[in-house]
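Observation: inputs received (chain + phosphoric acid mono(formamide)ester).
Thought: call the complex predictor directly.
Action: predict_structure
Action Input:
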Amino acid sequence: MATRTPTRVPQKSPPSSFFQQPIHPGSAISANDFSVHEIRRILESSDALEKENPFRRADRLARRRVALLFYESSTRTRTSFELAAKGLGADTTLVSSLSSSIEKGESLKDTGITLKALGAECIILRSPYSGAPYLLAQTTGLPILNAGDGMAEHPSQALLDLRTILQFLEIPANKVSEKSLRGVTISIVGDILHSRVARSNALMLPKLGAKVILCGPPALLPETAAAIGPGIIIERDFETALRQSKIVMMLRIQAERLSGLEINLDDYRSRYQANSDRIAAHAPKALIMHPGPIIRGMEITADVADGPQSAIAQQVHNGVPIRMALLVRALVGAKKVGRR
Ligand code: CP
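Observation:
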């Protein structure tokens, strides 16, 4: 009897999404993704794009497809990324956890693969899970812009905060260097433990020479936070921190992430609230910042939030030019945006 050669099942290549893909160089996932040179480029690009004629600007990303994937609520980040993309001529689509197949249990990976198959060329992701942007970047190979991941990072917020600080100090973007913020002390005050804004700022500001003071009670600011990076110290006494600071960033207590931590809010207010008496006594010339959303009467009083030292509205304003620069970097490349 003739022996039969076993039939070989043809081996199909696994789909490309099976493999981890390299992180796209246009991604912005951590403040550590940026060298000082790149920070300067992004700031210069944000200036150029802000000044550009809107009709010319709308050609830069004409018909490019940008997806906004938001698993958490957002006002400032979502709106400013969307306005930035639209101002550059891109087509945008919003996928939020409510009203999408995420509600039916679709994973981040499958959502990313789906968006890519629909033609998305860049995904802006907000997620409650720290590290989610890395997973999406490795799954899709697309440039991923981190719009806030859990308690980890919010790099575009750190860039717009930096733009606000440099405007206050009258330092032009083309002069940004490792020494630009030498001699400048910046206090970040409040719920550091849960704040991705604090982490990204604490990573970025010392790159430009700033001294960063983290200030808050032990429950919201563990001693280990000083290890985020070089140039960071912890100060428990708010008034001591204020007296040293040119810039004060207030943070909201993130009630949605407290998970079992009990904070005495009256005690917190009495020790850490930015109110007009305290600011007038200890930091009468400091710039007062807050990434928002602010809780008036808790970490900051209305007269300080709306007062002459407040940069809160300017921070929001700076969100659009910074995010335009990040989108151009993601979809066109890291070269400086110049005249065309
Ligand atoms: N600063 C910030 O991330 O605000 P939103 O949550 O409104 O986007």
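Thought: report the result.
Final Answer: Strands lie at 65-70, 91-96, 122-127, 144-149, 185-189, 211-215, 232-235, 247-250, 287-289. The chain has two domains: 21-153+319-329, 156-316.
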